[in-house]
Design a protein that fits this description.
Strands 18, 21, 24, 25, 26, 27, 28 and 29 form an eight-stranded antiparallel sheet that branches. It contains one helix and 29 strands. By secondary structure, it is mainly β. The chain folds into three domains: about 15-170, Galactose-binding domain-like (Jelly Rolls), CATH 2.60.120; about 175-285, Sandwich (Jelly Rolls), CATH 2.60.120; about 295-365, Sandwich (Immunoglobulin-like), CATH 2.60.40. It is about 0% helix and about 60% strand.
Length: about 375
């Protein structure tokens, strides 16, 4: 398989505006598990809900309230905690056209704070958002809360509450960000090349929105690192790139690494690109690629029974799946190779063909 590895840096903390409550609790999407009902005038229902959800908190009474009707929040881990600061307490309400209700009160129990939401002048029979701003000079820690109707509200009729949210500034803790993203071969897929001068060829496909400007290929022993610039590469199509590479000593079963720096100062960015058809081509004494002396073909592709390799010079092969697991291999070099494939699963595979002149990798499909 392919090995993925990263090293990390720590980004600095930053502030962001967030909702401190969850949809499950005070968006009521957990069906009311966060609530304790003191009076049966309150219920959680699917009769009506704001566009963002399926449940809402319903109040319904045939008569005006003479004292208080309450529902408590804070059950099952739904207490409210807030750092000291300024917050916007937002809520959506739907008020029945015939309701004789002037508003409702939300209470935060510790520190004791009341929020009186007024229905005066709001549109009826539709969802309306109400908002109250509140500053806390000290931290709110695991406070329970309640929604209530008092005698001053009237309380005859029906209304619904949904999407109760508390918006404020939160400090986002530091996040580990990789210095680089690395893919490395395992031992069974390592590379062996004799000491020589090579041209390394590969193909890249860069998606349109990609801002990544470069990546690196590396051989570990002897260590050789090549930087590949892709900032100016045509996007949305396969493009072949080539670089010279010199090996001062034999490369024997060494790891091959693909690396992308995540810092934009070193070629990183966002987006997607693909790499395929990596080939090491040995130069002859004149410095010209030996690729004219190494031609091959793989057929049929897709294949269902047999996959054929024909090469002008003796070759062996490794067939592995896209996860890097070896499916079939041969160390007996031949110019004509037949690979039975009817016994392996359908899908895409990578076929590595090795000769003394170089290594090529082809994508093949088994159907």
């Amino acid at each position: 398989m392919l090995i993925f590895a990263v090293s990390s840096i720590i980004t600095s903390a930053k502030a962001d505006i967030v909702n401190f409550l969850t949809d499950d609790n005070y968006g009521f999407e957990n069906g009311g598990q966060a609530l304790y009902f003191q009076h049966d005038t309150w219920s959680v229902t699917q009769e009506k809900a704001a566009p963002s959800g399926n449940y809402s908190l319903k109040y319904e009474s045939d008569v005006a309230v003479t004292s208080q009707n309450k529902v408590n929040g804070g059950s099952n881990g739904s207490t409210i905690s807030l750092p000291a600061g300024t917050y916007k307490f937002k809520v959506k309400v739907w008020l029945q056209s015939a309701a004789e209700i002037s508003g409702f009160t939300f209470v935060l129990k510790e520190p004791f704070t009341t929020f009186n939401y007024s229905f005066n002048g709001i549109e009826r029979e539709q969802w309306v958002e109400l908002e109250i701003e509140q500053t806390f000079n000290t931290e709110v820690i695991d406070s329970e809360c309640l929604f209530k109707i008092e005698s001053s509200h009237g309380g005859k009729g029906v209304f619904y509450i949904d999407d109760f949210q508390i918006w404020g500034e939160a400090i986002i803790p530091p996040v580990e960000v990789p210095y680089s993203s690395i893919i490395e071969t395992v031992e069974s897929n390592n590379i062996s090349l004799p000491a020589a001068d090579y041209n390394m060829h590969l193909k890249v496909w860069v998606e349109e929105s990609t801002s990544i400007s470069s990546f690196y290929t590396q051989l570990k022993e002897p260590f050789v690192s090549l930087k590949w610039d892709i900032a100016a590469v045509a996007k949305g199509e396969w493009v072949e790139l080539k670089q010279e590479m010199s090996l001062s000593s034999d490369c024997e079963n060494t790891s091959f690494v693909l690396q992308v720096a995540n810092n934009p100062d070193y070629g990183g960015g966002i987006g997607t690109f693909y790499i395929d058809d990596i080939v090491f081509i040995k130069k002859d004494d004149t410095g010209v690629d030996d690729d004219t002396k190494f031609s091959y073909r793989v057929f049929p592709n897709p294949a269902s029974q047999l996959l054929q390799i024909e090469s002008e010079i003796p070759a062996d092969y490794i067939l592995y799946n896209v996860s890097g697991r070896i499916v079939k291999k041969s160390s007996l070099k031949s110019q004509s190779i037949t690979i039975p494939v009817s016994d392996i699963s359908k899908g895409m595979y990578l076929l590595q063909i090795k000769t003394q002149k170089g290594i090529v990798v082809e994508s093949v499909i088994i159907k």
